[in-house]
């Protein structure tokens, strides 16, 4: 297991990058702590797999360094980094049995037969492959083969890090939750440093201790699921995390109040934004319909009953806004305004969250 340090790291697929836009991975400086489980979350093309491949040694960065426990491994080959990587599509040896596939990494390192047998049985039990240990991998389903790949990645106890690149893509939906739970259980039991790449927020939020949200080649926030939900550091985080995502309103702010669509909104503390595009972000959970004369003017467009709650789609000054109400809540058609829970309001300047006066940055 290792602490992973990204030092002034950046990468461009262009041989002669001339500006920041030429970089698929923009400059990163982060420490990822030993023994924690991280999820790299973002849309396709944001730089997740590029970063993972640099960490594993499959790709050499254009600039900067990668350190494992403060040891520079930037120029070290993949084999010497002592990592295990599981890819999006299964990589198995079809002519071997499931047992031999799982044992392969341990036999390569001359582990004792008794240790190999015990470890293989333990991993097979965790991923539900006990009944097919003696079958050849050829002919198994795609999701069974991916479980072999997962198991082979997890079978070694001494790795510096376990890297997963969208490993559940080919897994049947009903198996995904079970496998995520098993991966989390393995992490708690053995304490490996794990990095899990995904574009699926559910996978990220249910797997990781810390979620690393990437956007346009940058890390825009690293935090717990609760931090990402309550205090999105960037508007993309607010949009990408949550269903529906965070509402954004253009605003004018003067100290403890904001003006939105001609209405005054009280803020939870004072702000002093200077220049740039000013917006407030409010998650649908913190938007309330009201029949009173105060609040932001809004009209109901439609109501979507999704079982656990209702999603109310509203029009506010020509923009769609979402609110969430309880399944048993009655919704008055006379409601023509919305209000916000003050604690659920975040203020953004040019897409980045700013702290209120007195709040720790």
From TrEMBL:
An annotated Gene Ontology molecular function: ABC-type ferric iron transporter activity
Keywords: ATP-binding, Cell membrane, Hydrolase, Membrane, Nucleotide-binding, Transport
Enzyme Commission designation: 3.6.3.20
Protein's UniProt keywords contain Magnesium: no
Phosphoprotein as UniProt keyword: no
Matches recorded under InterPro entries: AAA+_ATPase (IPR003593), ABC_transporter-like_ATP-bd (IPR003439), ABC_transpr_FbpC (IPR015853), ABC_transpr_MalK/UgpC-like (IPR047641), Mo/tungstate-bd_C_term_dom (IPR008995), NA-bd_OB-fold (IPR012340), OB_MalK-like (IPR040582), P-loop_NTPase (IPR027417)
Family per similarity comment: Belongs to the ABC transporter superfamily.
Protein name: sn-glycerol-3-phosphate import ATP-binding protein UgpC
Gene behind this protein: ugpC_6
